[in-house]
Amino acid sequence: MTLTNESGRSVYRLLQHRVTIALAWTGLALIALVITPMILETTTPIFQLFWLIVPLISLIRYRDADRVGFRIPDIGTGLRATITAGIAYAVLLILFEPWSGVYDRLLVLALEGPDPTFAWLVRFDGLGRWAGLALFSGFVTLYSEELFFRGWLLQALNRRTQPKVAVVGQAIVFTVFQSIPIFFFEPIQAVLYLLVYAFGLGVILGVASQGTQSIWPGLAVATVANFVLTAILL
Fold first, then answer.
1. What is the mean pLDDT of the chain?
2. Which of 89, 106, 181, 220 has fewest C-beta within 10 Å?
């Protein structure tokens, strides 16, 4: 009984530690998302502020990191999910990007703003610009997307419906939030952006998150893909 109680206390301490990390990371990301646009003189990403605030409220209210997908899967499961999602997304990009130029157009729009994720490429030179892009996207902007859609929203839908429906549901909501750029695309680009680059990506990352109950595979894939595509297209 003593060993069982000690084990239970150890698990509880680990859970509390994970909640603290999630609260600190999300809070710091929110602060960075407010301050960075002022420093770099960029547009303010209102949606991404919302995507951080909602999970942060959940963390404060429930003190449960699993409700926002802040779970660390075992190494084997996490790697398989990350690699599978990465290959699936790479296949989509190889099939569509060379002739459609959707991501290329999206990058042009992001640099014109500039969007705070890509402003590092405009405001700085050398390795600093790439380091800023990688760190800010991975720790702030793309983190906000994964935390909200593949974390908080996916888990909220899981409590109310079937896993496959939850994956599709969060992908649909993700697509709706991502739809603003279609007004700056050619018609065929707009359709491809919604179906492939938004909904398709949402499903791929949603499946990875559903299989691991974690945002980390999706965040890894999104961050690497964003960095590699940007480096290739610029």
1. 92
2. 181
- The pLDDT value recorded for residue 11 is 52
Region of residue 205 (left: phi > 0; alpha: psi -120 to 50; beta: else): alpha
- Which of 13-22, 31-40, 135-144 bottoms out in mean pLDDT, i.e. has the lowest? 13-22
Up-side HSE of residue 36: CA atoms within 13 Å toward CB? 28
192-211 pLDDT, tens per residue? Answer: 999 999 999 999 999 999 99
Enter the DSSP assignment of 215: S
- Amino acid identity, position 77: T
Amino acid at residue number 59: L
Q: CA-to-CA distance for 76 and 140, rounded, in angstroms?
A: 26
Cα separation, 143 vs 86, whole angstroms: 17
Beta carbons within 10 angstroms of residue 137's beta carbon: 22
Give the pLDDT score at 113: 79
**How many helical (H) and strand (E) elements, i.e. helices and strands, does the chain have?**
12, 0
C-beta atoms surrounding 161 within 10 Å: 12
Residue 206 CA: distances (Å) to CA of 138, 144, 152: 17, 15, 12
Q: Does pLDDT of 15 surpass 80?
A: no
Q: How confident is the model at residue 12 (pLDDT cuts 50, 70, 90)?
A: low
Pairwise CA distance, residues 234 & 231, whole Å:
6
Buried b (16+ CB within 10 A) or exposed e, 199-210: bbbbbbbbbbbb
